[in-house]
Amino acid sequence: MTVISPSSFLVADIGGTNARFAIADADGQGRPTLAAIRELRASEYPTLAAAAGDYLASLGTERPRTGVFAVASPVTSDAIRFTNSPWSFSVRALQTELALEALVLINDFAAVAHAVANLRRDDVRAIGVDTTTLAGDGGDGHYVVLGPGTGLGVGALARRGGVSIVIETEGGHVGFAPGNAYELKLLEALWRDHPRISAERLLSGQGLLNLYRAVCAVDGEPASVDTPEQISRQAAAAPESACGRSVALFCELLGAFAGDAVLMHGAWGGVYLAGGITQKLLPWIERGGFRGRFESKGRFETLMKRVPVLAITHPQPGLLGAAARGLLARPDR
Fold first, then answer.
1. 15 annotated as ligand-binding
2. Do both 57 and 101 map to the same domain?
3. Is residue 313 a known part of a binding site?
4. Beta carbons within 10 angstroms of residue 297's beta carbon
5. 179 is in an annotated binding site
6. What is the value of pTM for the model shown?
7. Which helix (H) or strand (E) holds 167?
8. 24 annotated to bind ligand
9. Tens-digit pLDDT profile for residues 195-233
10. Are residues 97 and 125 both part of a single domain?
């Protein structure tokens, strides 16, 4: 049974596919800690309140009094509607239903940005150029956090005097920019089914399937698989197949997008890559064209070669970031 102390609070990381919950607190150094972590399939619950209620019931009679939820949605009002999920809710109504004294909502990649300053060396893996300095080491700097999952999340982070300043964005919905003639053909193929092609339309779970179908259409091959999981499995078995070429191109496009995000935000301190797909495709990202497309920015190529990219390997960066955000509200912080 999890012990709920007066300082403990509920944290959640709610995406389009999974709903993750935990009890958060601080250790002796004031760093966020997580306990009683549980991951639920969003499709198995009619509402977020039902999923959260199931989690709280598993804790027993003790309940946290406050909560911080990270959600895959813009957080601009009391009404929250998920971008890649049928769930929607009122923040005030959810707080009442869960019997919480306070409930803070933040964007899911804002949570990842809050987590960045709490990551240790063994929580990250360098893609290309390494760095001896992490965002949490005390210096000032600008960073971008991004990553593909059910959608494509993007957030920005400024560190000033040991304090994290997080900027929530919906950067995954900027328009896709082809980088060569072949990618222009892919864009034209995608236009047949979608009036606007965002980066997320290609750089997400469903995006991998969209990309694969476009590759098949342009290359004159039949599309024989129907899910991102099938594409990944076939790519591993046959790297030269349409699936393999699609996964390799996915990683190249992710690198190009990450490089553009650095330029847009002046994130010379580096990029932190998150998202479930990042973990699954990390070997492809490391050995493929990700880094080349990341650096290939014309007159800024020399500068981009010095910008580190760190893949987050911490198992729960969203929950960790929600916990870090919750600690900021404490009177002693």
1. yes
2. yes
3. no
4. 18
5. no
6. 0.93
7. strand 163-168
8. no
9. 999 999 999 999 999 999 999 999 999 999 999 999 999
10. no
